Amino acid sequence: MTEPAGVGLSAPATALPDLNELIHAAEWRRALATARLSGADPDVQEALSAVVGIQEGLRARRYPAARRALADLKRAIQDAPAGELSVLRRLLDPAALERAVAALDSRPAPRGEVAQSLEARLAPALELGLTRAEALNSLGVQAALLDDTAGARAHFEEALLADPAHYRALTNLGNLDLEAGQSAEAEARYRQALKIHPDYDGAHHNLGVALRRQGRVGESVSSIRRGQRLGMRRSKEDTDAEMREQFSVSPLLKWLRWGVLALVAVVIVLALRGALS
């Protein structure tokens, strides 16, 4: 008796990509997935997870998150042995990354700052592959503020070449389309950005504006409301993250935090005693 087709046969296993090649190509998310599937050394997985965290923090302009991930990366590769970790040490200099993130997180430029001045300030970030896209996006924003639409578009497009998943740069291209009266093109950009990051509040809100300009009011209201909800959530998360970072670096704030918690505990105890008496 013949077996039904496929019974007793194992499907050929799909070969995993070469981890070192992915690392050299800076395909960090694929490298992390490959490391996990292949059972790579836990230190390698930790380091790659940190790199992905840095990249995601920069894309979202969440610098406290990027700095936390950078601290994780430093711990993971500081005594790296031979193999993938040593490759990461050669490709990713934590000290250079710290300078780049600091440049990106510096005080916003005044509206009148010339592009050359901003570019000089962002030089540490422009020099590194991991931070280059965010630096180019910042240059694009500054160009747009200075009414240099062509320069802004060039910077945003260059940012996407450096990081095709930089959804804020993609959204900014949509904003330029919207300002040019190209609502349908802007809608396509925003939807593409939301495929990359479905919870990006800015793309939801601006998609609503693009839909309204096309007369699609019902869709517009839904998109804008979703953007508002996500924006409120993001604002709270960002505030909490900044506070945690300040508490972690300031001994005085740590002491005050514990003092406040102790005071709250005393108040609760006294209130309970009063309620029970």
From TrEMBL:
Signal peptide: none annotated. The chain crosses the membrane at residues 255-276. It holds the Pfam family TPR_11. The keyword Glycoprotein does not apply. Keywords: Membrane, TPR repeat, Transmembrane, Transmembrane helix. InterPro entries: TMTC_O-mannosyl-trnsfr, TPR-like_helical_dom_sf, TPR_rpt. This is Uncharacterized protein. It comes from Deinococcus koreensis.
